[in-house]
Write a structure and sequence with these properties.
Elements: E1 9-14, E2 17-24, H1 27-42, E3 52-59, H2 63-81, E4 83-93, E5 97-106, E6 120-121, E7 127-131, E8 134-142
Antiparallel strand pairs: 1-2, 2-8, 3-5, 4-5, 6-8, 7-8
Length: 143
């Protein structure tokens, strides 16, 4: 990850994979920050502009699965269509459904630096919990 990591984001040492811990004042912010953090692992976001918007809607059986499904859908769009996202707006978030807008642009080799490929967003060591006033999540990505 770049040197200017936000205070709400921490990288976790994890053999062969990359893990992150994210904190936020609301669940909506937590899901948005987790998406930003995933793309921050993938690429240098300083060069990515929010030029286009893509609606994303996912459903899952519980909150943890919803987080994995959300990030997996964004990673799928990145891997199959070449999108890099830098901004996320969670419009609705329930226990089983999420609707959001991801903003970014398609990969341009002349302007964008991609660091790695994420094969999968895993359930390994996945946590979503409230600590005091903030929500926290831990996510491990299979590289």
């Amino acid at each position: 990850m770049p040197d200017e990591t936000p205070a709400w984001l921490r990288e976790i040492d994890h053999t062969g994979d990359v893990g992150i811990e994210v904190a936020a004042p609301s669940l909506e912010d937590l899901f948005a920050r987790a998406a930003w953090a995933m793309f921050n692992v993938l690429a240098d976001l300083a060069s990515v502009q929010p030029r286009a918007a893509l609606p994303v809607a996912v459903a899952a059986e519980d909150r943890a699965a919803l987080l994995v499904r959300w990030l997996s859908e964004l990673n799928f769009v990145h891997a199959t269509q070449g999108w890099l996202f830098c901004a996320f707006e969670i419009e609705t978030l329930g226990e089983h459904r999420l609707a959001a807008t991801a903003r970014g642009e398609r990969y341009d080799a002349a302007r964008h630096t991609v660091y790695t490929e994420i094969k999968a967003v895993t359930f390994h060591d996945l946590t979503i919990e409230r600590r005091g006033e903030d929500w926290h999540a831990r996510i491990i990505f299979d590289l």
